[in-house]
Structures are given as structure tokens and as C-alpha cells.
UniProtKB/TrEMBL annotation, chain A:
Residues 38-232 form the Transketolase-like pyrimidine-binding domain. One of its GO terms (biological process) is pyruvate decarboxylation to acetyl-CoA. It holds the Pfam family Transketolase_C. It comes from the Eukaryota. The pyruvate dehydrogenase complex catalyzes the overall conversion of pyruvate to acetyl-CoA and CO2. It comes from Chenopodium quinoa. This is Pyruvate dehydrogenase E1 component subunit beta.
UniProtKB/TrEMBL annotation, chain B:
Its EC number is 1.2.4.4. This is 3-methyl-2-oxobutanoate dehydrogenase (2-methylpropanoyl-transferring). It is found in: Mitochondrion matrix. Its cofactor is thiamine diphosphate. Heterotetramer of alpha and beta chains. PANTHER family: 2-OXOISOVALERATE DEHYDROGENASE SUBUNIT ALPHA 2, MITOCHONDRIAL, 2-OXOISOVALERATE DEHYDROGENASE SUBUNIT ALPHA, MITOCHONDRIAL. GO terms for cellular component: mitochondrial matrix. SUPFAM superfamilies: Thiamin diphosphate-binding fold (THDP-binding). It comes from Chenopodium quinoa (Quinoa). Coiled coil: none annotated. InterPro entries: Alpha-ketoacid_DH_E1_comp, DH_E1, THDP-binding.
Length: 390, 393
């Protein structure tokens, strides 16, 4: 895949992708407070670095992870530190290096597989599902597959002006050279498969704690990062920097407490939802924002506790609406807390179309902060419900 | 010479396309002639003890296939797949490996497991999916696996195991182990993307892995002529920078020697080897197939009568005075008895318990599965008469 990109780099211009700056992304900066900060990119890098240092069985494999230091510079410095036996640049075949990593995991190593993007992982989905997810069960527990599949997932739009030069370059490589039409969120795909654990970090704390937990976990983990968030900085505590810091897999986090409406989100949409909650607060609506962190297992208990408190629920995701993460959350709430609901649940999701390229169309295809605000208002009877307006 | 990335190349003013063939096909390595005569002393001699053990295992494999096949025809098991015609590939390659070498099978290689000590009872338990099945009844018959015997559980997906073998070989290399991996696949498997990725990666990663292709001429109903062009599989190795050999897949001594040498090179020189064994699938693809619908019965009969690897090997050990008719009859009758007994035991054992439905999806049972298990047990307890009695709750 990289071959295609490189060709274009040689002949293309650097100016075009910078036009696709999204004010909404810039807004995320306001969450940075005083004190220690960490970029998500550095959080992922330090998590891999520390786990490779602690366990000689951990190794990294993928296209451009070594000499090039990763298409998004996530693996910066690791080749120098751990050498080419543990930071392996591979030929271009997702199915190839994914299958090889699974085989290495069968035999006791702990591979971290980097996909340049999860869109490319489609070529390797046979090995992720049929080889990695099912082998422990099919071998009756004789073979375990301790492996992490990681990389950016979902839409890749919007290059903020605050990003480092390096990241503007790498984002150029990916966002402008590839037809965006196959960019999508894979959380529901992997989230529907028993045998896999699926994690979706939002902040630097999430990225560090969840990735370290994933690498140590005996089961195969799909770790869905977000390209836009790589360059975002988040405040972090001393605890997060500690090499022993991990976040339990399967637990969601209440990012902001509220009492009027629950908003569930993951990855980039957590930031959007927090922004929406700020707007809602000005209108007197107290929104509780849940950062799912883990798509599988899903923290049904925490989601339902929150809904029982607020009696209203909005789910937010960048993926397609049908059979999505929001659909699963809706069902879990209907099954467990139906009697507590005071308003219909609303799903905010990507449009049910392949990702269009033109900026105006692309913006319409993805959830916006305003969409979340409006949905929350409808749930709180501050606006006309969609059904009634139709 | 001209310097390019990847090395220097010579120049020529003559425009010439490389031919798609080398003129004549790559020769097939043989040690035993059609009548079991030694054509030439091979590098690795096989003595009496080893030869007899190899023959006994080939016979056991034949008898096992016959009886399990019949059991399937009687409706006692759901599915079966024989190794007929490929007994030498199974047993001779198993004999040339060491116990530490990790096997990544396709599905037509139960002989390797037999050689390593998987008992007839264990085979029967798996085929019947009972509570003693070491696969906990989770896979259809013939999907054997044994951690203890370094035989990775069979997966039905074609050729995915090639990549796993490369990854595991890389792991062996990193640990500096005196062992390699070996992976088996058919001619059909070489058309998958995984075959090409595996050969390329193995060469680039310098992984000690043996790729063993059983080119038996048929991928279910697809003949080799519809599967690929060029001179079969062996020539593909060179393009990937992999040393390769073509052997007679019905010649146990040739296979033994080729695998023995392949193993030595793979481990000492840390690189992959490709073996193409030419053979014939003398049985149907599986019990879901009737191969007389797409290939002449005479063809099958001819291979069974004149090219069967087991009688050929028998002639050789007979000639050495290591075997005779009496021992042969005794062996076949003894294996048959053991198998009938094993089937009876396997059939009468309880099925896997309810708990086996839920374990091993994850290292630790997650809350949703705990809940499902609790509900299932409750339902079974409340409606005991609607559930079979041979499933422990």
C-alpha cells in the first residue's frame, strides 16, 4: 500500500490537504489544562517502548515501522533501541505479516502488529478473525494468541494547524493520497467477534493505560487509534506516567458527570461529546459523557447505571449507523433499563454512505458537535423530536 | 555491470524475454523404483528398526482411514477425510523430523500425529467429539491438534497455516532453538495469497521453515491443469529466493531423505526450503465428495494398483528380509481390533460438558459469557427432559 502513497508523494503538492482544516478539531485544544501534558502519539510510543523493555517476547511488526519510524511516527526511536529483530519492517502484504505475527504468537512471542490504517487490515481480516480470535477456542485452550493489532481507525479528515511539521507530512501521505471512500470505523466489525478484545482510546491516559494492558493481555486485542488524536495533547497525572500504569480492559470511564442526559462515545467522538456537553451546559442541560474505552467487552453496567440516573441516552460514533456500536448500546439499555427511559434513544453516527472526498460532503458524512447538541436537546424535550418533525 | 537497488546486473543488447519454462520439467527425486528396488543408495540410510516402524505406521494410517471412513458411511460420525495415496508423505516426513519441530498441518496429515504418539483412541475421541476429545468437541472430525506433540490444531481455512509456520519459525530462530517448523498444503493451496506471502516473508525473514506441498493433482474437483501454469510448484521457490526440491511423493525413502536434508539446511543456515511432492489423491477429497463424478474410475484404480506408496515400501523391506506376510496380516488385524474397540469406547462416552461451550473464548470468562452459562444451566435444569442425558451439566 505504501508504494502507492510514495509515488504520489514524489509527484504531488503539499498544499492541498492543509485546506481541509476543521475548526472543530482546533476546539479540542481547550481541554488542555495547566500541568503535565502528553501527546497521544507519545503515549502510544512510550507504552510500546516500556512494554518492549520489560518483556523480551514483545516485538513490533508492520509496514514502515522501523527505518521510517511509522507512517505516523508512532514507532519513533524503537528500531534504534531494540534492533531489527524486534522492530521488523515487512514486505507489503497485510495478510502476510498478520499471519506471521499470529504464528509467532502461537509459539510464545507477543507481537504488536501495526496497520498503517485499519482500512488496510481488511486484507488481513481472515487472520485477525479466523486465526487470531478463534484459535484458543478451536484448540481447546491449547494455543493462546497474545497479540495486539493496532493502528489508526476511522475517518482521517482534518489536519489542525497546531500539528507538528512531521505529522503534517505523514498525514499528507495518508489523507490526501488515498481515496477516502474506504475509510471507515471498524469498531463494530471487530466488536462483533468473540475471541477478540476491542479497545478505543481517546486521551493520552487511555492510550498509555489501555495499550500497556493490551500488550500484557493473553488474548488477541484490536486497538483502534485515531489519526486526528495522535497530535492532540492531554493533561496527565504522575500515575499515568508510571511504567506500571494500566487501565482495566472492559471498563468505561465517565469523562464528565451530569444528570440530565447520558452521551456515550469512543475515540475522537469523546472530544466532540465533551464539547457538546459544554454547549449544553450553557443551555441548562447537564450531560454525562461516557468514554467507552472498550468496545468488547462492553461496560454494560456503567452505561446502564448512567442511563438509570439520567433517563436519557444519546450514542455517538463515526461509524455507520446500521449494526453499529450505538445499536448494541441501545439494545443493552432496552434489555436492562427500559423502564427507566423517559425519551427515545438517539444514535448519532456517520452517514450511511461510503466516505465522500469533497470537504463539504465529507463534513456532512461525519457526526458534528452540533448534531450531538441537537440530539441531546431533543431527548430533553428542548427541541422537536425527529419523529414528530418528520 | 549496472548497479541497481538489490545488486549489480549485467547488460545485454539483445532483447530477450525469459521463457516461461526451462525446456524440460524439473526432475523428481526418487530412491525406490516402482518395484521397491533401491535405485541408488541415498545419503540417509534407513535401518531395519526405523523402516519397520515406518511401515507399521503407514499400515495403521491405512486401516484407520478405512475404519473411520466406514464409520462415517454408517452415520456414526459426521465427516471424514482420508490420506489414501499419501501415506508415505505423512509417515516418511514425520520420521525425518525431530519431536521439537513444530508441525502446521493442512488436514491430510494425521500420519504425523500418529507417528508422534497420538493414540488411536485419541483420534477416535476427536472424530466422535466426546468429553475425552482433547479439542473439547469444538471442531468437526479430523481437525486434530496437540500442543504436547507440537502439532498445531487444524484449521479449515486453506493455507493460512503457511504464514503461521513462518511466524513460529521466526520465533524459534529468535530463541536460537535447534528446531524448525514444517507446514503442509496441497496444490490448491498454492493459489492462495497466503502461499505467496508466506514464501516471500520466509525468504526475507530468513525463517527456518519447510514448506511441504503435497501436489496430489486434485483440489477437490479442480485438476492441477486448472490450478496453475508453469512447471508445478517447485519452480515457484526460486523466484522467492528459496531452495527447492521435487520428490516422488509415493517414495518413502526419497521423502525421508529430502525432509531430513531440508531440515538440516533450514536450521543450520536459517532459511526456508520448499518441497514439492508429486503424488495422487487416491481417495475422494472427503466424505462430502464423490470423485468418480469428475475423474475416471480407471485413473483412480491405476494409481491404487500400480503406484500405491505402501506396497512399494513393503517390497523394499520384504526384499531386506525385514517383513513377511504373516507379520503383515497380524499387524492389520491387530490395528483393526484396536480401532473397533476405540470407536466403541469413543461412541459410548458422554459428550463434552456444558462448561466447554464457554471456556477458551478468552483467557478468563467475561461477564456476558458467565451470564449466558448461568442462563443455559438454569434452562437445562428446568427442562431436563428436553435435553440429552449424555451431556454433563
Amino acid at each position: 500500500m505504501m508504494g502507492i502513497m510514495r509515488q504520489k508523494v514524489a509527484s504531488g503538492s503539499f498544499s492541498q490537504p492543509l485546506q481541509r482544516i476543521r475548526p472543530a478539531i482546533l476546539g479540542l485544544r481547550s481541554y488542555s489544562s495547566s500541568g503535565k501534558q502528553m501527546m497521544v502519539r507519545d503515549a502510544i510510543n512510550s507504552a510500546i517502548d516500556e512494554e518492549m523493555g520489560a518483556d523480551p517476547k514483545v516485538f513490533l511488526m508492520g509496514e514502515e515501522v522501523g527505518e521510517y519510524q511509522g507512517a505516523y511516527k508512532i514507532t519513533k526511536g524503537l528500531l534504534d533501541k531494540y534492533g531489527p529483530n524486534r522492530v521488523i519492517d515487512t514486505p507489503i502484504t497485510e495478510a502476510g505479516f498478520t499471519g506471521i505475527s499470529v504464528g509467532a504468537a502461537f509459539h510464545g512471542l507477543k507481537p504488536i502488529v501495526e496497520f498503517m490504517t485499519f482500512n488496510f487490515a481488511m486484507q488481513a481480516i481472515d487472520h485477525i478473525i479466523n486465526s487470531a480470535a478463534k484459535t484458543c477456542y478451536m484448540s481447546a485452550g491449547q494455543i493462546t494468541v497474545p497479540i495486539v493489532f493496532r493502528g489508526p481507525n476511522g475517518a482521517a479528515a482534518g489536519v489542525g494547524a497546531q500539528h507538528s511539521q512531521a505529522s503534517i507530512y505523514v498525514m499528507y501521505v495518508l489523507t490526501s493520497d488515498l481515496p477516502l471512500n474506504f475509510w471507515q470505523c471498524y469498531a463494530p466489525w471487530y466488536g462483533s467477534c468473540p475471541g477478540l478484545k476491542v479497545l478505543t482510546p481517546y486521551s493520552a491516559e487511555d492510550a498509555r493505560g489501555l495499550l500497556k494492558a493490551a500488550i500484557r493481555d493473553p488474548d488477541p486485542v484490536v486497538f483502534l487509534e485515531n489519526e486526528i488524536l495522535y497530535g492532540e495533547s492531554f493533561p496527565i497525572s504522575d500515575e499515568v506516567v508510571d511504567p506500571n500504569f494500566t487501565i482495566p480492559i472492559g471498563k468505561a470511564k465517565i469523562e464528565r458527570e451530569g444528570k440530565d442526559v447520558t452521551i456515550t462515545a469512543f475515540s475522537k467522538m469523546v472530544g466532540f461529546s465533551l464539547k457538546a456537553a459544554e454547549i449544553l451546559e450553557k443551555e441548562g442541560i447537564s450531560a454525562e459523557v461516557i468514554n467507552l474505552r472498550s468496545i468488547r467487552p462492553l461496560d454494560r453496567a456503567l452505561i446502564n447505571d448512567s442511563v438509570r440516573k439520567t433517563s436519557r441516552l444519546i450514542t455517538v460514533e463515526e461509524g455507520f449507523p446500521q449494526h453499529g456500536v450505538g445499536a448494541e448500546i441501545c439494545t443493552s439499555v432496552i434489555e436492562d433499563s427500559f423502564d427507566y427511559l423517559d425519551a427515545p434513544i438517539e444514535r448519532i453516527a456517520g452517514a450511511d454512505v461510503p466516505m465522500p472526498y469533497a470537504p463539504n460532503l465529507e463534513k456532512m458524512a461525519l457526526p458534528q458537535i452540533e448534531d450531538i447538541v441537537c440530539a441531546a436537546k431533543r431527548a430533553c424535550y428542548r427541541a422537536v423530536p425527529v419523529a414528530a418533525a418528520a | 555491470d549496472l548497479d541497481f537497488p538489490g545488486g549489480k546486473v549485467g547488460i545485454t543488447s539483445q532483447m530477450r524475454f525469459i521463457s516461461e519454462t526451462n525446456g524440460r520439467r524439473v526432475e523428481c527425486y526418487r530412491v525406490l523404483g516402482d518395484d521397491g528396488e533401491l535405485l541408488k543408495n541415498p545419503p540417509m540410510q534407513v535401518g531395519e528398526v526405523l523402516a519397520v516402524k515406518m511401515y507399521e505406521n503407514m499400515v495403521a494410517l491405512q486401516v484407520m482411514d478405512t475404519i473411520f471412513y466406514e464409520a462415517q458411511r454408517q452415520g456414526r460420525i459426521s465427516f471424514y477425510l482420508t490420506t489414501m495415496g499419501e501415506e508415505a508423505i505423512n509417515i516418511a516426513s514425520a520420521a525425518a523430523l525431530s519431536a521439537d519441530d513444530v508441525i502446521f498441518p493442512q488436514y491430510r496429515e494425521p500420519g504425523l500425529l500418529l507417528w508422534r504418539g497420538f493414540t488411536l483412541q485419541e483420534f477416535a475421541n476427536q472424530c466422535f467429539g466426546n468429553k475425552a476429545d482433547n479439542g473439547k468437541g469444538r471442531q468437526m472430525p479430523i481437525h486434530y491438534g496437540s500442543n504436547k506433540l507440537n502439532y498445531v490444531t487444524v484449521s479449515s481455512t486453506v493455507a493460512t497455516q503457511l504464514l503461521h509456520a513462518v511466524g513460529a519459525a521466526y520465533s524459534l530462530k529468535m530463541d536460537n532453538k535447534n528446531a524448525c517448523t514444517i507446514t503442509y498444503f496441497g496444490d490448491g493451496g498454492t493459489s492462495t495469497g497466503d502461499f505467496h506471502a508466506a514464501l516471500n516473508f520466509a525468504a526475507v525473514l530468513e525463517a527456518p521453515v519447510i514448506f511441504f506441498c503435497r501436489n496430489n493433482g486434485w483440489a477437490i474437483s479442480t485438476p492441477i491443469s486448472d490450478q496453475l501454469r508453469g512447471d508445478g510448484v517447485v519452480v515457484r521457490g526460486q523466484a522467492y529466493g528459496i531452495e527447492s526440491i521435487r520428490v516422488d511423493g509415493n517414495d518413502a525413502l526419497a521423502i525421508y531423505n529430502a525432509v531430513h536434508e531440508a531440515r538440516r539446511i533450514a536450521i543450520s543456515e536459517k532459511r526456508p526450503i520448499l518441497i514439492e511432492a508429486l503424488t495422487y489423491r487416491a481417495g475422494h477429497h472427503s466424505t462430502s465428495d464423490d470423485s468418480t463424478k469428475y475423474r475416471p474410475l480407471e485413473e483412480i484404480e491405476w494409481w491404487r494398483k500400480t503406484r500405491d506408496p505402501v506396497p512399494r515400501f513393503r517390497k523394499w523391506i520384504d526384499g531386506n528380509g525385514w517383513w513377511n506376510d504373516h507379520r503383515d496380516l497380524e499387524l492389520r488385524s491387530s490395528v483393526r481390533k484396536q480401532l473397533l474397540q476405540a470407536i466403541q469406547v469413543a461412541e459410548n462416552l458422554d459428550k463434552p460438558p456444558v462448561a466447554d461451550l464457554f471456556t477458551d473464548v478468552y483467557d478468563v470468562l467475561p461477564p456476558n459469557l458467565q451470564e449466558q452459562e448461568r442462563l443455559l444451566r438454569k434452562t437445562i435444569t428446568e427442562h431436563r427432559k428436553d435435553y440429552p442425558t449424555n451431556i454433563p451439566v
